[in-house]
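Re: the pair you flagged

First of the two:
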Amino acid sequence: MRHFWIYKPAGIQKGAPLVFVLHGYGNPGQQRTWMNEAAEKHKFAICIPCGWKDPQGKPSWNVGYPFQQGWKVDEVAGMEQLARYVQKKYGLSRKNTFMTGMSNGGEMCYLTAYSKQKTFKAVAPVSGLTMEWIYRTMDAPKPIPLFEIHGTADHTSEWNGDLENKGGWGAYMSVPIAIGYWIAKNKCEHETVEHVEGLNKENGCSIIKHKYTGGPTGCEVWLYEVINGPHSWFDRDINTGEEIWSFFSKYLE
């Protein structure tokens, strides 16, 4: 049995968009996420699923960490099945369903993007990684819009990657290489760069907004590089939910 929370703002319309919000490793999920305020403002629903316990007893998503070896859980199929159930039960859009996730949930966003799935139209990992095994063995079947927000001082999910598995999460690619795959997959031809100050000037973070556009399918790639940013969802530095929804809303039908 998969447990989940559903958040439907007052006044939401039948057939409204649906956003999955996936928690980080060991965190069973919280009803309050970085997307709630945006959901309230823009009238979309949020599904917050809880990961099953892995071999270490931690609620998580099976993305092939070394300590998850032998764990037989097909997470992408599970999320698609849950999405169909939630769409039907709560009268939400089958076409406008998206996924965001923090850390381990961000890895799930990448795994979903690389997989043969027809449910999630765009993904937005936050402090997420592309595992080396995904990068080396999988090729995404189609372009998909992708938006990563990542701190350069993240010591859990290192900006420069960890191909030697020093952190114990398994080998993973650097953020620029991980994003470069999607720029190529989506055949983006143009890049715009904007440097802005963070909302909280006391912590010394600023944001470089990279936006890659011009692909034949319209699937864009955004990367927000949070200078000196730690492992977080950056709600003190940017309005994360608004930024992610501004990206997802480009793909509404």
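Second of the two:
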Amino acid sequence: MPTTAYNRISGQSLERIAALSDGVFAVAMTLLVLDLHAPAAEAIHSEGELWQKLLPLLPRLLAYLMSFLTLGIFWMGQQTQLNHFERADRNLAWVHLGFLFAVTLLPFTTTLLAEFIEYRSALLLYWLNIVLLGAMLVGSWLYASRHGVVKQDAPPELNRLMLGRVIVAQSLYAFGAALCLFSTYLSIGFIVLIQLHYAIAPRTSRLLRY
């Protein structure tokens, strides 16, 4: 009985979930850039040598850009959900801890992809990381909407918007991952374009309006 009563009162602070999330996202974004290393000064004696040393960094820069956009998009998605929640509970808190677990994995899968950018398995592991992020957000919203956590004055179309955005995005990410059958660079390029679209949020596309 005491454990059951404790579970009913624990994890109710949305502010603490948001604060922890901001910290985890900040650390994950910082870890991404730590994988970029400037060429050693003693090895550079001309402009040409500098460019020769910088060119091999392009795969890492591409992976960094993609992952920074990924974290930015999912941070926005989580914050949007939290802003429409009336309260939290223990189960919802653990769902978001699972979401943050996926966030902390992204620096690792990014490094793996940057090191083995031409290997499909590295790209697929990175894509699975994105799938886990999306699945946890969907799980959060479904739980909240079924357990009376969403604010009562929320717009009626909010459920469609929340789920539709994640489902459409994950479908596009899956298509992008499938392009690795032809080229991992083609796959990464497509994923980056999708991320840029969601980051810029133009109003010209009906398919991606979520």
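The chain has a mean pLDDT of 84.

-B.
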